[in-house]
Design brief:
195 residues; alpha+beta; PH-domain like; 2 domains; 4-stranded antiparallel sheet; 4-stranded mixed sheet; 8 strands; rod-shaped
């Protein structure tokens, strides 16, 4: 049995969440870039087509068709162009979320307060891992842990539900860190990710 103290700070947790968000959103960023190009291309095509058709009606029928009738004739093209513009704006916003360094951190830091973080004890045994403090008592068997993520500052063990156990490397001595890593290697057989 290994028992260690974990002293998690808000800055460490925000840094981990930003790295994890970038790791999990790689394919979403790629998809957003591709869709942005496609929607921009469609807006250009439909916009040019709308403008040339409108110009054609104005030049060919200058007196017989008023502008209101021309706009009613072109309502479907106007609607499609508007819809593609809305999709283009949505993808631009998605790219802002995925590539902005401050958006995710600001949003998460508004939800978290410094008093939400407290020191906890983490206990690793052959059957389970537990984290407990004055307010939290969380125990997970090794079978329930789905993923372990290592960063420079943290070791995070994710369970099957949105619960996780966090150990800070700075609060561990070299011997404790080696013992924890050996216990993780021997007890956990799932995916280990280093960010």
């Amino acid at each position: 049995m290994i028992e260690v103290l974990s002293e998690l700070t808000q800055a460490e947790w925000l840094g981990f969440n930003e790295k994890y968000f970038k790791y999990t959103s790689k394919s979403k960023r790629r998809r957003a870039l591709i869709l942005l190009v496609v929607y921009a291309f469609l807006v250009i095509i439909y916009g040019v087509n709308l403008f040339t058709t409108f110009d054609f009606y104005i030049n060919v029928f200058p007196v017989s068709l008023p502008v209101a009738e021309i706009l009613s004739i072109l309502a479907d093209k106007i609607l499609l162009t508007f819809i593609f513009c809305v999709f283009l704006c949505y993808e631009l916003f998605q790219l802002y979320i995925y590539y902005s360094k401050n958006y995710f951190g600001k949003r998460l830091s508004k939800q978290l307060k410094e008093q939400d973080f407290e020191n906890s004890r983490v206990c690793l045994t052959d059957e389970s891992i537990a984290s407990y403090s004055d307010y939290i008592d969380l125990r997970l068997s090794w079978k329930r842990i789905t993923q372990i993520i290592h960063t420079d500052e943290l070791i995070v063990l994710f369970g099957t539900s949105p619960q996780c156990i966090v150990m800070t490397k700075k609060s561990l001595t070299e011997e404790e860190l080696q013992a924890v890593e050996l216990k993780l290697e021997s007890s956990f057989s799932g995916s280990v990710i280093t960010l």
